[in-house]
Amino acid sequence: MSTVILLSLALMCLALCLAFVRLFKGPSLPDRVVALELFSSILVGTIGLVAIATDVPSLLDVAIVMALMAFMAAIGFARFLERGGPRDD
Amino acid sequence: MIELIKGGLIMVGAIFMFLAALGLVRMPDLLTRMHATTKAATLGATLIMLAVALHFAEVAVVARAFGVIFFIMMTAPVAAHVIGRAGYFVGARLWSGTVKDELRPNYDPLTHQLKSGLETHENAKRHPRDTDPD
């Protein structure tokens, strides 16, 4: 079991690195917002895996808060983009 | 048996998340990138939360895991829609191989007006009928 968890954690770490590549390169601000969305989704999965690995069910609350914050951030960024605030990307 | 199912769910979920990140890097424009990330990452998080529910098998934990799944399934499409809409308004360039953009001929980005293509003078006239109330 621990091998499976280690392997999946490595895969998701790689996924985080790839998402960071897009966050760094991303030609425009919407691309970066999409990368941040993916960040939070991968983090929810990682927190779930850590909860399994350490047998601490309270970590699920952290996952809930993470998902909630990501949703709010996406909505906020989209409002900002539509209103046309100052940006350089 | 439960261990096997759990391991399978975790592995498949992690692979889906990796594929989402790969799509985010490899896809050519904003909308295709969102197409890759939102669905695959949602499915990955869902599968891992199912594995969490199987692992703990207590009512409180299973309820919370399903709460996470429900929340992600509800919010991911809304967030994707809002970001895609904002991206289109900001003027994100579409891929050069895009076949069809039905919004472009009908939508005015300056006034935010959407036309149907039937706004002729003939259609704007009023045609009273016999059944109309006086």
TrEMBL record, chain A:
<dbReference type="InterPro" id="IPR007208">
    <property type="entry name" value="MrpF/PhaF-like"/>
</dbReference>
<feature type="transmembrane region" description="Helical">
    <location>
        <begin position="59"/>
        <end position="81"/>
    </location>
</feature>
<protein>
    <submittedName>
        <fullName>Monovalent cation/H+ antiporter complex subunit F</fullName>
    </submittedName>
</protein>
<keyword id="KW-0050">Antiport</keyword>
<keyword id="KW-0812">Transmembrane</keyword>
<dbReference type="Pfam" id="PF04066">
    <property type="entry name" value="MrpF_PhaF"/>
</dbReference>
<keyword id="KW-0406">Ion transport</keyword>
<keyword id="KW-0472">Membrane</keyword>
<keyword id="KW-1133">Transmembrane helix</keyword>
<feature type="transmembrane region" description="Helical">
    <location>
        <begin position="33"/>
        <end position="52"/>
    </location>
</feature>
<comment type="similarity">
    <text>Belongs to the CPA3 antiporters (TC 2.A.63) subunit F family.</text>
</comment>
<keyword id="KW-1003">Cell membrane</keyword>
<keyword id="KW-0813">Transport</keyword>
